[in-house]
Amino acid sequence: MTQFWIFAVLLLIVALLLLLIPVLRVRKDQAEEDRTALNIALYEEHIVELEAQHESGAMTLEQLEEGRIEASRELLDDTDVGRPKQSANLGSALPLIAALLVPVCGLGLYFYWGSSDKVALTLSLQEQPKTVEEMLVRLEETVRLQPDSVDAWYFLARTYMGEQRHQEAVNAFEKTMELVGRRPEVLGQLAQAMYFTNNKQWSGQLQDLVDEALRQDPNEATSLGLVGIAAFESQRYQEAIDAWTRLASGLDQQDPSYAAIQTGIERARASLASTPQASDSAVPSVDAASSGEYQLVIDVALGDELSAQLAGTDTVFVFARAADGPPMPLAAKRLTVADLPARIVLTDADSLVPQLKLSSVAQLKLQASISNSADAMQIQWSSEAVLLDAEQDRSAQKIVINKAN
User: Fold this and answer.
1) Is the bond preceding 95 in cis, omega lying within 30 degrees of 0?
2) Are the C-beta atoms of residues 363 and 393 closer than 8 Å to each other?
3) What is the pLDDT of residue 28?
4) C-alpha span between 388 and 405 (Å, rounded)
């Protein structure tokens, strides 16, 4: 900002010089005119003296003429008689008054119509902010001075979200949407801010926002992530899995958020396997007769030494995972210790991710575990993992739970 004012002062000095130089020149001309008048008066007085001397007989006519010529030559040497006479009005006070009014009026008009605050903001934005608070101050100042800046409102809203100032983020996203329209990424961000503002309570308004965003862009990341979070918090684990799986499919596996999403999917699958709905299809004894669809038959038994250590209500989880894939299960069923031994059948209908069927995986890893808290993440006992070729080995697989975790 200092540099700006230096240039402004220099411009004012130039303007003053343009006004004052003619005034100073007129004063110089006036001084020359006064000196010329004095020389002429002296010349006339000298001529009178010469004529008086001629009349008194002290000077001849020739001497008088020579005196006149000499006086005229001296007058020409001392005076530029060819210069037109200058008017004294040119040196009046009007130019001086104008010179004084130029900086005063110029500064007044600039402060009224100018943009010194925007100049200061532009200069400040050339430097990287050192703290989040400094960046917030700059963004708030930007939207104050440039209320139609879409980028400024959007980044201000994102910064508010990062600082957990959710209500202010809602206001900023709404302003962004007013300027840019109901674009899917803005709708998703607005829904997310409103979700946290409402203490993670889902509502019809939020559903409408994410539905509108996903109609425009079925892979809109923020909306898919939010749907997954809301579904998981409401124990609608399959919906969470579906939303996060679609979100992960659009991400690069090197993206830092990809691993976090996969962890969320794994937790949702484990939680789904431990819910009562997951055990609805768990049958203690199932006939392996096939109607033509893919079936994986598993016999689950309990080690002899464990019978006296477990309660009949302890939960048994049976998982099928991809041998070379992520650790989250592809399919799972839940039993109780009282159900053992049991034969279960896993089919494509039991796949926790509809897009990833059991029949599409070449090699599977089977395992069973027991939890006394009905939490699949808290396991006390488990079986050895059984590897099989899903395409070639269609015989019943036997799993014995006998290993302490």
Assistant:
1) no
2) no
3) 56
4) 23
